[in-house]
Write a structure and sequence with these properties.
Elements (H helix, E strand, L loop, with lengths): L1 E7 L24 E7 L5 H9 L3 H10 L4 E9 L2 E8 L6 E12 L4 E13 L2 E9 L7 H14 L10 E8 L9 H9 L4 H4 L3 H8 L7 E2 L30 E7 L20 E9 L11 E8 L9 E5 L3 E2 L4 E7 L10 E6 L10 E4 L4 E4 L4 E5 L9 E9 L4 E5 L3 E4 L2 H16 L3 H8 L1
Parallel strand pairs: 1-2, 7-8, 14-22
Antiparallel strand pairs: 1-12, 2-4, 3-4, 5-6, 6-7, 8-10, 9-10, 11-12, 13-15, 15-19, 16-17, 16-20, 18-19, 20-21, 20-22
Length: 446
């Protein structure tokens, strides 16, 4: 289950709550992956430089919301105001590999990043999937420029790399296509009467899909929601400024699944490389309650069905025995024969609510801290001095330097607290209270 968000946030700060945006109150099964594409994230030079050194406020915000629910930030890519974030459930991490990011500038003839696209590509259970968040040129008259820019982004992403044949895309963002020909009064009247179908045939993207071959493989759900641009801030009222912009479906989600049926083998079957992904759109909606910008966010919830080409993790690991902060501990792990191990691989100890791969509590080098090895498994040592005295619920992750990803993850487990140190802390508190001067105590009472 994949939940995709596109939102032009208009340089605003995150809202107080995104429960409905992320469908966290849904009665159905939890999402397996969140793909969040934002446009016009505050990119003033002071903000942008600080965001290069530290996570930007939007990334921190979504990590804060999703990490307690068991999601890790797998990848992110930023190009000025464009931001693409991908979060996944822990259980899928060993089966996501070859994560690559890319960005393409199209603003100011390719020299400025206020327009363009940011992309994340990955292998998911052996199938290649690509997510593209775009912000295309604005204004009614720039349809051809929008199409040219998208075609350029499509051509330039991961240019020169050896990309597998089974390439599947989600394309989304503030694509800025408008409703042509009709006047503002007809458009608004059609919206008020919920007769959106009257506007579909003059939607510039729908019109382009009939003429442009490279667009015809892309699919979009029905536009059964109000146009998402342009609104007065903190309202569901369309633009009342002097410009009175005509409403439009600028914020869109499209997808393409590369069909390889024509490459079926002579025996009538398919090789493993020719397996395709089945994509089902479960809902495609806007969220009118969010008013921090002049755009309303749009979400698409998808079901991805695929035959896993990877069924076993490269590394299996688990804590040896009961762990306590009072003594040194051991980690058992085993790897499949073809695993490309490295001296720079490490095993991290993470809280179960960890946010991203660098959010470890401590780590051990798999070679430097190894204490035993045989054909079936290896053991790695971790010092008690590195383990939190308070204990709690944790998990272990094996990070591969060659693959630049987590390739193994343990089940959550408990670490018992260091009772000796906790006892000392408690005794010190009691002594401090007992030694309090009488006049201090009377002041507190007063």
């Amino acid at each position: 289950r994949l939940h995709l968000v596109t939102w032009n946030v208009g340089t605003a700060s995150p809202p107080p709550d995104v429960t409905s945006l992320l469908q966290l109150d849904s009665l159905g099964p939890a999402m397996d992956m969140y793909v969040i594409g934002l446009q016009e994230v505050n990119s003033r030079i002071t903000n942008f430089l600080s965001d290069l050194a530290f996570d930007d406020p939007w990334s921190i915000f979504f990590m804060t919301v999703l990490s307690p629910l068991g999601y890790m930030k797998l990848s992110s890519v930023r190009m000025q105001g464009l931001l693409l974030l991908i979060f996944v459930k822990h259980v899928h991490l060993p089966f996501i590999r070859d994560v690559h990011t890319h960005y393409t500038r199209t603003g100011l003839y390719g020299y400025w990043g206020n327009k363009g696209g940011v992309t994340v590509r990955m292998s998911l259970y052996g199938h290649t999937i690509c997510f593209m968040n775009c912000h295309l040129p604005a204004h009614m008259e720039n349809t051809e420029q929008r199409l040219d820019d998208f075609e350029k982004i499509l051509e330039m992403q991961f240019e020169g790399e050896n990309i597998p044949n089974t390439l599947d895309h989600d394309w989304f963002g503030d694509l800025n296509f408008r409703i042509a020909d009709y006047g503002i009064h007809f458009v608004r009247e059609s919206i008020n009467n919920k007769r959106y179908n009257l506007l579909w045939e003059k939607d510039q993207l729908n019109m382009a899909k009939k003429k442009e071959a490279f667009l015809q493989e892309f699919i979009e759900g029905p536009l059964q929601f109000k146009p998402t641009y342009k609104f007065d801030l903190y309202s569901d009222v369309y633009d009342t400024s002097e410009k009175k912009r005509k409403p439009a479906w600028t914020d869109r989600i499209l997808w393409r699944v590369k069909n390889l049926c024509q490459h079926a083998s002579k025996e009538g079957g398919f090789s493993e490389e020719e397996q395709t992904i089945s994509v089902t759109l479960n809902n495609y909606i806007s969220h009118m309650s969010y008013g921090i910008s002049d755009h309303k966010p749009v979400t698409g919830t998808f079901g991805l069905e695929m035959k896993p080409l990877l069924s076993d993790p490269l590394v299996t690991l688990n804590p040896e025995g009961e762990w306590s902060a009072e003594h040194d501990v051991l980690i058992n792990y085993s790897a499949v024969p073809e695993f490309p191990s490295s001296a720079w691989d490490w095993i991290g100890l993470f809280k179960v609510t960890f946010r991203h791969v660098n959010d470890y509590v401590t780590y051990a080098w798999v070679e430097d801290d190894e204490i035993s090895s045989n054909e079936n498994s290896k053991q790695v040592y971790m010092s008690a001095a590195e383990i939190p005295d308070t204990g709690g619920e944790f998990l272990l992750c094996y990070y591969s330097n060659n693959l630049q990803s987590i390739v193994g993850i343990s089940q959550p487990f408990q670490i018992q607290p260091n009772r000796t140190l906790l006892g000392k802390d408690l005794t010190q508190e009691e002594n401090s209270w007992m030694q309090k001067p009488d006049n201090q105590e009377s002041r507190d009472d007063f």
